[in-house]
Amino acid sequence: MLGFLEEPVVVTAKISVNLVALTVLGLISRLRGLCYPRAVVFDEVYYGQFVSLYMKRIFFVDDSGPPFGHMLLALGGYLGGFDGNFLWNRIGAEYSMNVPVWSLRLLPALAGGLCVPLAYQILVELHFSHRAALGAALLILFENSLITQSRFMLLESILIFFILLAVLSYLKFYNLQKYSAFSGSWWFWLLLTGVACSCAVGVKYMGLFTYMLLLATAGLHFWHMIGDQSLSNVSLLYHFLARGLALIIIPMGLYLSFFYVHLALLYRSGPHDQIMTSAFQASLEGGLARITQGQPLEVAYGSQITLRNVLGKPMQCWLHSHTSTYPIRYENGRGSSHQQQVTCYPFKDVNNWWIVKDPGMQQLVVSNPPRPVRHGHIVQLVHGITTRYLNTHDVAAPLSPHSQEVSCYIDYNISMPAQNLWRVEIVNRESDTDVWKTILSEVRFVHVNTSAVLKASGLIGASLPEWGYRQLEVVGEKLSKSFHQSMVWNVEEHRYGKSQEQKEREVELHSPTQMDISKNLSFMAKFTELQWKILTLKNEDTEHKYSSSALDWITMDTNIAYWLHPTSGAQIHLLGNVATWASANAAVLVYLCLSLWYLLRRRRRIYDISEVAWQLWVSAGGICGGGWAVNYLPFFLMEKTLFLYHYLPAVTFQILLIPVVLQHLSDHLCRSVLLKNMFSALIVAWFSWVYFVYCTFRPLTFGQLSLSPAELKALRWKDTWNILIRKQ
């Protein structure tokens, strides 16, 4: 029974020395001297703010992309014991002792270092020689721009790592397809492809480009499988479902999980709350939640409410009125009603309070039991402090003459009767009998007499002049069938009115009553709102000193100064290896020309290379050339401020194409031994040039050497490069 113990247990493993050596070299190049400089470097000033907010559990919104990359950076801070206390306000500021610089920069550096062995394995899985794979890895190892971007608290190296991992995983899965379908390793690499794609998209939306490329590749491969008569219909269905699960369902679920963790971590109110809806704000600890705790849920006749405009950008504002009236005549000579002004005010104020009144009754208090207001009910809105009724009529608004003026009605005893009836329409209702609810209901107010809709036009236009205290214009929009969030309002603060007397009513506005509002929005509701804000919230793009166009990247006519030593000439720049980038451009041109030549010849039934070599050429071009194209060409369509680092995922794929082209030229165009030897000698000379350029620009990559003005001028190989030289 115990006979198996008579022989020793032996475990054998194949270790690739190339892979181990490349991994060690990659990690050394990225990790060595990681704490230098101990100062804020370029976009660390941007990402560091979010890391601090994670440490303090304070909610934020970043319109640059999903939260997974930020969480990874925050993980580095957490592992280093960072408490979040640092003022991220200036590039070059020295880090205080409580900031774990090495820990914060660790994960980007690890990701950057691991890209070196990933490049090697990708070429191997594309069925190229180990020499070609070694060349690809060394080109990544000696690429100055990738080293620079990996050594700081930035996201591009993490993005590139997950992109390359996704490509490698899919290639391993595909190569197992023919002989080991549905095996454990087959499932592992297929699932890892989906996970890596989701992580890439979760770091930056640029990851979508490679994800779409792999989905298209998987779709093309499955299309070829459909034509394989050896596969049954049931087998094809299993293959289809497996790919759908691993490449679509699991990535979507993982993407949702990033937001779930993000929202679970950031449960405290913060400076970004104001762009979210009142319901979202009320779900956070502190802030609006402290104000709304204990408020009644259902709006009833007699309720005292504040109305917040749902649009919330460029700033949040509340329906507001005050004793001042519209001027009799505006600057352009147009007349007004001279009624009491109604505006949208971007601050909390006692003049933001309104009372919901039943038009058929005079009382301004909530009855017992309360009579809730439902969708379609007619109400009057009475301004709490001045007791005048919200009104609109056929008078042009001050800044929007195509719309109606909104005012609080003053009876001047002239032929201008009050028109103060409004129909409540709950936009997000589930049925036509829904009750108007605090925070949760989004409502439109439709004027009964004119069908105009109450709208905060100042949020999408200009503010009122001095006579309107620079507050935002509110109008009656005549086109009631149109829809815009500026027409939608929600109740933010809510009290049940108890006193009919005006002075007592003002006192009771601040007393919470009755039942609590449920502050727990569902995760999907919070995710949907946050995702929409990320996609639609656009910071005002301004020209940056180091911004560039996509055309500048190809020829590397631009650079970015990341850091400058305060006293010496030491500095760090984002600059690529000129030799590698020029060679990558040449590789793309050679690949396109050769592909066109082969296609024309094949059309004429002339086959210069074997079918196996042709399929290898096409598949490698689809991954490397296609990866470059999908990560580069979309930037020509983007209206945003662009920087050189946006090109790094694309140039990584472009670099992988270099050894593909070189091996193809050596195998199929150098037919004699002499030509092969000469070509090999040229490759050695070329690679020596690549290494020479890497060493030349190494001082600007690591920034550890003090450079004289003469040395800095010698490094300015292009007039368009902004190398910083101090005046003597």
UniProtKB/TrEMBL annotation:
EC class: transferase
Domain MIR as annotated: residue spans: 296-359, 370-427
Enzyme Commission no: 2.4.1.109
InterPro entries: ArnT-like_N, MIR_dom_sf, MIR_motif, PMT-like, PMT_4TMC
Pfam families attached to this UniProt entry: MIR, PMT, PMT_4TMC
Membrane topology: Multi-pass membrane protein
A molecular function (GO) term: dolichyl-phosphate-mannose-protein mannosyltransferase activity
Chief location category: endoplasmic reticulum
CC per GO annotation: endoplasmic reticulum membrane
Transmembrane spans: 68-88, 100-122, 154-174, 186-203, 208-226, 246-267, 578-600, 612-630, 642-662, 674-694
Subcellular location: Endoplasmic reticulum membrane
Record keywords, A-Z: Endoplasmic reticulum, Glycosyltransferase, Membrane, Repeat, Transferase, Transmembrane, Transmembrane helix
Reactions it catalyzes: a di-trans,poly-cis-dolichyl beta-D-mannosyl phosphate + L-seryl-[protein] = 3-O-(alpha-D-mannosyl)-L-seryl-[protein] + a di-trans,poly-cis-dolichyl phosphate + H(+); a di-trans,poly-cis-dolichyl beta-D-mannosyl phosphate + L-threonyl-[protein] = 3-O-(alpha-D-mannosyl)-L-threonyl-[protein] + a di-trans,poly-cis-dolichyl phosphate + H(+)
PROSITE patterns according to UniProt: MIR (PS50919)
Metabolic or biological pathway: Protein modification; protein glycosylation
Family the UniProt entry places it in: Belongs to the glycosyltransferase 39 family.
Protein's recorded name: Protein O-mannosyl-transferase 1
Organism of this sequence: Rhadina sibilatrix
